[in-house]
Amino acid sequence: MAGIKIAVLISGGGTNLQALIDAVEAGYIEGEIALVISNKKDVLGIARAKAHGIKTIVLEKSTYGFREKRDAALLEALEKNNIDLIVLAGYLAIVPDMIIQKYRNRIINIHPSLIPSFCGDGYYGEKVHEAALERGVKVTGATVHFVNEVTDGGPIILQEAVVVDFEDDTKGLQQKVLQVEHRLLPQAVKLFAEGRLEVVGNRVKINRE
């Protein structure tokens, strides 16, 4: 398959991974998901990848021990598979600086809020939605951004807002935001694959086709 080689890093069910798989198989994204890496075994995301014939690797702490050993194994897997783009899709582990530096502006993450709201250290998964509801915001959303050394601090690629209804609870709000994530992440990967993203300082310019 022509196009870029993508590695998707996950820690759980992989619904954003599935959105990317669907987009690639539909021809929406010019590339292939060459590798799925999880820091947890027996998660649904791994099963999703295997069901589509995608190579998978599990880098568990219990198997690889020291973080330095896991980091080295991650870098080796990326290099061995000639990865062009790394996508963090619900990946709940720290990406080492050496990988951020080697793949500068080639790592993107999906975050379930409108950065800079409810982001940074400690804000992940349901915690983001709990914080939004506790604060009483009327609008939340999802953000796709490049990854740098600051948690959720990299240049923003795409954002989309979601209205918070009074009746929303954590699970309900999470599902509303996920629907946006499943559109936004494939769109960002498509733009990257087409060479249409240009980072200028801490801003991203989306060039026309």
Question: What does it look like?
Answer:
There is one protein chain. This protein has helices at residues 15-25, 44-51, 61-64, 67-80, 97-102, 126-135, 170-193; strands at 4-10, 31-38, 56-58, 85-88, 107-111, 139-146, 156-163, 197-200, 203-206. Strand 2, helix 2 (44-51) and strand 3 (56-58) form a beta-alpha-beta unit. The model has no long low-confidence stretch (mean pLDDT 95). Helix 1 packs parallel to helix 7 (170-193). It folds into 2 domains: 1-103, Formyl transferase, N-terminal domain (Rossmann fold); 110-209, Rossmann fold (3-Layer(aba) Sandwich), CATH 3.40.50.170. The chain is globular and about 50 Å long. The chain has 209 residues and is of the alpha/beta class. The strands form 2 sheets. The protein has a 7-stranded mixed beta sheet, with helices on both faces. Pathway: Purine metabolism; IMP biosynthesis via de novo pathway; N(2)-formyl-N(1)-(5-phospho-D-ribosyl)glycinamide from N(1)-(5-phospho-D-ribosyl)glycinamide (10-formyl THF route): step 1/1. It comes from Anaerovirgula multivorans. Residues 5-189 form the Formyl transferase N-terminal domain.
